[in-house]
Design a protein that fits this description.
homodimer, 60s Ribosomal Protein L30, Chain: A, 24% strand, Phosphoribosyl-aminoimidazole Synthetase, Chain A, domain 2, 313 residues
Chain lengths: 313, 313
């Protein structure tokens, strides 16, 4: 914490106390101006920052406070997964309006649960007043071979983890005034960063990766652009949740699943190592215009739908 | 950036373009989910996060956009100075309301200038919409021997860099509807993180340090508490700016000067290494109640005034 122990009076210190109570021993290195961490010799440091803001990324009535904390933390951890980095620590900058102050304990609980799931200590943070709830989360990790977006090569297979379309379907339901199905809602409210899966992939020859935040079509375009290759998706192979048309899954953002390219994975070995998590081959890197994405349906070229942007409401 | 290159349309990407244009080669590792950095072998990683929010830390009419960016970045870098860490990288999470969007370029310019002064690359960030301008800044550094607050020992001398009281006097003037003097205003608007000074101090035997964010009296109390010692200040020795009574300097926050304890420094050697920056002995660590701060004036015990809290307006 850049705020100071022992804590004095005032709303800021009350907030910090609330956080520390929720986090217990998961909060470490609190009490100096900065936290001190060890990066293993031979490893690179990997860092990323990600902000979740009320009205931009969610509406209050959609999520419980625990889910808000969990989801924001997992969204940040997902960037470490995309780089195949092992978690080192998380720092939080929370903006907490008066109307949210009573929800701080369960928000902190959700953050702590996500950090526990990702096996990452909370090493710093601060709390400020503001008009909208905002969680700016910085994650630190380390990797001997960080995965980049730029390594995909012609002949690679394109893989995706999990089953897609839940967050997009949940969002569409809420915006239409309907309740999403429990399965779709769960994928929006309780995503999981694929930290172990990505490290398995890099050990088994992954050439490039990205986490699905903008939607499969858009995120694959980022790999295609960074790698200077053409990516070809087979629509009928997309693993989708029940009730989600494949075309809609293409544009479903904030999935936090992993999109990976590799010469070939042994799917059976992956399944053994990650019980319950699907890894599906959905396309291939082919000769074609650099930076392009092509969609096929049963072998025929079809038009690519437009991509996801953040809901702003 | 957790946002993605090549940039697509939309306000978020326009904002990122504005930032990258301002920062030029100072922005590095942009375009993957995380940035990759090297921590020198044998060094510890030091991290801290700090948020500057409109209405909490400043009012719009007090500062130029460049000064807002500079000040927020220096406030964060000051935590690295307090730990005697060498800068590695800075990550920004900016909340930019529509009313501030035109000011984003000069804000980014101020951030870039402060980063250049601190010799630190900008390795990540994101921009979100919101109702108040907020700059959540995470700094990464490395140190073989990070300075903590807990190392002060009986017999140590207490030192402070610079001349105190400017930010407090500027704030008092603004809140009273007056214009601060240029010298006082400059210390509020254009602080400098004491990165080189702190590393000099650790090489010359510093035992503990903190940066002055809550005000000298409050920050010294943090050292006293963490080190389990009694700190004694000599009021008449405080280096103050013209027009600032010593008692007011005790409570002037957001100075971002360095408070350091050490058996003894060679002030002449410090002056040679840091032209223009004062290093002043202002007290000593003595036998007494752990965690306490005593104030003396010409050798006689006097009452300690109450400490600074953030302006909230």
């Amino acid at each position: 914490m850049t705020t100071h122990l022992p804590l004095g009076p005032g709303a800021e210190f009350d907030s910090i106390r609330t956080l520390l109570t929720q986090w217990g021993p998961r909060a470490r290195g609190i009490g100096d101006d900065g936290a001190v961490l060890d990066v293993p010799a031979g490893s690179k440091l990997v860092v990323s920052t990600d902000t979740t803001v009320e009205h931009v990324h969610f509406r209050r009535e959609w999520l419980t406070p625990e889910e808000i904390g969990w989801r924001a933390t997992m969204a940040a951890l997902s960037d470490l997964a995309a780089m195949a980095a092992a978690p080192l620590g998380v720092l939080l900058a929370l903006t907490v309006p008066a109307a949210w102050r009573d929800a701080l304990a369960p928000i902190a609980h959700g953050i702590g649960e996500a950090a526990a799931q990702g096996d990452i200590p909370i090493v710093g943070g601060d709390v400020t007043d503001g008009d909208r709830l905002a969680l700016a989360i910085t994650v630190l990790g380390h990797a001997t071979h960080p995965l980049a977006r730029s390594g995909a090569r012609v002949g690679d297979t394109i893989y995706v983890t999990g089953r897609l379309g839940g967050p997009g379907a949940a969002l569409a339901a809420w915006l239409a005034g309907r309740a999403p199905t429990p399965a779709h809602r769960a994928r929006f409210a309780h995503p999981e960063a694929r930290l172990n899966a990505s490290r398995w992939c890099v050990r088994h020859g992954a050439t490039a990766a990205i986490d699905l935040s903008d939607g499969l079509a858009g995120d694959l375009a980022h790999i295609a652009a960074a790698s200077g290759i053409c990516a070809e998706l087979d629509l009928e192979r997309l693993p989708v949740l029940d009730g989600v048309p494949s075309r809609e899954a293409l544009a479903s953002g904030e999935e936090y699943e992993l999109l990976v390219t590799a010469p070939a994975f042994d799917s059976t070995a992956f399944a053994v190592a990650h019980a319950g998590l699907a890894l599906t081959a959905i396309g291939q890197i082919v000769t074609g215009p650099a930076g392009s994405v092509r969609l096929r349906e049963h072998g025929r070229a079809v038009e690519l739908p437009s991509t996801h942007d953040h809901f702003v409401g």
